[in-house]
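Each lists sequence, tokenised fold; shown next:
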Amino acid sequence: MTLRRRGNLANHIAKIEKGVEGPKAVKVGFPKGKADADVVSIAIWNHFGTSRGIPPRPFITIAMFKNRREIRAALRKIAKGAVENRTPLAVQMPKLGALGAGKIQDQIAANTPPPNAPSTIRQKGSTATLIDTGRMRQSVTWEIDK
């Protein structure tokens, strides 16, 4: 059996690599410099809980886990677009960032358990977990990881 060489493999690989130039990651949530430090602190306290009575409500982890299939499908679509259609990653990655940020915002609005304590409900006037003024939810964003 004889193998026929069709073009230069190194040139073919170089073309594929050129098609995927650009950013390789996107950060979602509360990237440094994108949200006020007090909002980041509130998000951390709510996500991990505190020793002073705030229970953990890991809303970012839950959002990413619940939506992992959709996120993976978006990643496959980005890879296919970069290789087959030569769509630059710089064009596609913002879509992934917006998707992730939206999923986190949806989880914040979903009343993540455990429920608020009666004292918290009295103070806030609401049973909604993770939402008081809406500022944390509005601060969720994304950025291209450079």
About this structure: The two ends are 47 Å apart (CA to CA). The chain has a mean pLDDT of 89. The chain has one domain: 21-145.
